[in-house]
Amino acid sequence: MTTLEQLQLDNIAKNDYQIYPLLKQRYSPRIFSNQDLTENDVNRLFEAIRWSASCYNWQPWRFIYAHKGSEGYDKIMDCLSEFNQKWAGNAPFLMLAAYKKNTPEGEENFHALHDLGLSLGNMTVQAEYMGIGLHHMAGVDWKKAHEVFNVPEGFHISTAIAVGYYGGELNNLPEDLREQERAERTRKPQKEFAFEGSWK
After folding, report:
1. Which of 155, 139, 46, 140 is nearest to 98 (CA)?
2. Where is the Nitroreductase domain (predicted)?
3. Which range of residues forms the domain containing residue 116?
């Protein structure tokens, strides 16, 4: 068994209660297969977003995406934090995720960021079903991205996402990141975030 195959097995969540298997095996890789995403792959991922829930069905999400080797890909890479640039180039596909800040009536859409998160949750599960890993990144210079991609007024870029089929070589990462890939996944126990009847 290869190191990578063992890594994928080790990353299966050791959950306290039984959950949907695709959720157990989901993790955020920093290494990916060299296999590119096809047009059909991309359409299937965005179709999962298309059918996500949103407040009043406003669907405030917007995305900019690019394949490795394109000018758009290089532009997205250039907007990432220095830390994320150390590994994100392993991904064959990069995205920027944005949301529309206001309702159709021009009022603040307080739920827009929530809806963007729901849509990316849909995409994440669909991707896992297809053998594709997503690594969501907070480390993006959104102001720079707004300028580079001429983002219209009223929209806000929130995150970047590295996308690719699971695979690749662990040795393609710097040593410090290899250790992070091997590290055991941990989560807070439910009692620290779910409270019955009152805030505890």
Report:
1. 155
2. 23-71, 82-165
3. 3-8+33-185
